[in-house]
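Please fill in the sequence for the structure shown.

STRUCTURE ENCODING:
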C-alpha cells in the first residue's frame, strides 16, 4: 500500500493487486472519513482491511476488464454499497451495478466531489474520475502512452478522448493509472504533441508508446 495523495481534503491510497498488479485506489475524505474504492482488481481482503476505519460509500469502476473487477463480488457482499460503472461496460461484472455513470456526473463522498469523464477507447465505457488537480485514469492514460486498444477505430477514439477531455486539464494535474506509477497531464500532453507531429501508420493500434514514434 502506498499513500499517493495526502492533502487537507482527501487522502488517496494505492494498492497493487492480483496477477496483473492492477491498481485499486481508495479515496478518503479527510473531514468525514467517507470513502470510495476505484476498481476491484483482486485480493478483496487487502482492500477491506484498508476500509476498516473508513466509511465506504461507493465502488466505482474505470472499466469492466477482469483484472479490474476480480474482487467486485466479495467487496459488494462485504460493503453493501452501490457500484458505479458506465452503461457500455456494465456487463461481465457478475452482478448488476446500481449506478450507470455518465460523462459529467458527480460522485460525492464527504466533502469531496469527483467528476466523471467518459473516455472511450480502451473500452467503450472507460471512465476517468477527476477532483482538484488529481485524475484517476483507469487504463486510458499511462506514463508514455494511451491504454491498449483493440482496433484502429478504438485507437482513434482513445486519442479523441485524450485530446478532448484529459489534455485540456491543467498541466499540473497528477494522473493515477490503472497499472504502475503516476504521471502528469503536462508531461503526457507534451509527449503526445511530439508523437502526433511525426508521420504514423493511420491504422496503428494496440500498445502504443508516445516515445516510440
Ligand atoms: Zn483494461
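FILLED IN BY: designer on duty
SEQUENCE:
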Amino acid at each position: 500500500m502506498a499513500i499517493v495523495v495526502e492533502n487537507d481534503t482527501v487522502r488517496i491510497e494505492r494498492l497493487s493487486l492480483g496477477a496483473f498488479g492492477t491498481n485499486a485506489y481508495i479515496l478518503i475524505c479527510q473531514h468525514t472519513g467517507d470513502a470510495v474504492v476505484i476498481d476491484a482488481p483482486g485480493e478483496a481482503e487487502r482492500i477491506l482491511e484498508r476500509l476498516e476505519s473508513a466509511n465506504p460509500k461507493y465502488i466505482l469502476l474505470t472499466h469492466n476488464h477482469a483484472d479490474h473487477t476480480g474482487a467486485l463480488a466479495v467487496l459488494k457482499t462485504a460493503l453493501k454499497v452501490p457500484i458505479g460503472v458506465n452503461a457500455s461496460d456494465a456487463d461481465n461484472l457478475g452482478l448488476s451495478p446500481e449506478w450507470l455513470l455518465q460523462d459529467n456526473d458527480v460522485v460525492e463522498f464527504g466533502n469531496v466531489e469527483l467528476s466523471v469523464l467518459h473516455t472511450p477507447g480502451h473500452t467503450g465505457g472507460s471512465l476517468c474520475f477527476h477532483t482538484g488537480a488529481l485524475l484517476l485514469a483507469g487504463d486510458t492514460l499511462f506514463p508514455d502512452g494511451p491504454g491498449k486498444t483493440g482496433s484502429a477505430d478504438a485507437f482513434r477514439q482513445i486519442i479523441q478522448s485524450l485530446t478532448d477531455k484529459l489534455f485540456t486539464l491543467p498541466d499540473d494535474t497528477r494522473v493515477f493509472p490503472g497499472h504502475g506509477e503516476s504521471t502528469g497531464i503536462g508531461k503526457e500532453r507534451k509527449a503526445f504533441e511530439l508523437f502526433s507531429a511525426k508521420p504514423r501508420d493511420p491504422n496503428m493500434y494496440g500498445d502504443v508508446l508516445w516515445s516510440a514514434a
